[in-house]
Amino acid sequence: MVKFKENDIFALKIEDETSEYYGRYIILIKCSNSEWEESTNKQLFRFKISKNKTLPQLNEINSLEYIITYIQHELKKYLPFDGCKKFKELKKERDKIQVYPDEYGYLYSFITKIFGVSKNIPKNLIYIGNMALELPYHEYIPVCEYGYIREYSGWENIEKELIKDYKSYNLKQSKIFCKEAATNEKNEVIDLIKLEKRLENINYDKIYLNEEAIEDSLTYVGGEDEDPFK
Hints:
Blueprint: E1 8-13, E2 25-30, H1 38-41, E3 44-49, E4 65-66, E5 70-73, H2 87-94, E6 106-109, E7 112-114, E8 125-130, E9 150-152, H3 158-170, H4 179-200, H5 211-217
Parallel strand pairs: 7-9
Antiparallel strand pairs: 1-2, 1-8, 2-3, 3-4, 3-7, 5-6
């Protein structure tokens, strides 16, 4: 059984002969985030991809490209809400977080969760060594790990999933990289923020919790031009 330690680096050969990346290597780097739960940290990795079909040596890992595994609009930094704080206070805190959105307003994340990381570990996993690597440039690490990072459901097909993410995000082949998609994503996040703000004002001690009552409580009477950041 493999016991993954912080900064352990492994390689997984891409064995799908139909893939244009056949023979290259996915590089796995064990990582963690001190702000997240221990159960999550046990399953966290960042990933890189080799430049060719030669297994990279430890001293070559820093030069390899990180795989972007998750993209979200920069307004997502205001989510999720903190039940102990009003939005004004939360916004003031989150505005202190340095973020680096691209031209579409997207933030790039690299930390990824592998569910059941200790089960069905690939037999062809190659240990390269242990070394603290340079972190991804302009990486966004969200406040909350639940629903705001990429999650793979185990080791099965993980090479295919990572190649898919690499092509979608690193190579920008995804349809999200256009002005229309970015605007839609932004509006969806704004709607979520509006909803959260309304929810925080509900007095649940005075409301009968049924669908109709909740819907009435969330009705905004100020019109569609409500500013969610006030």
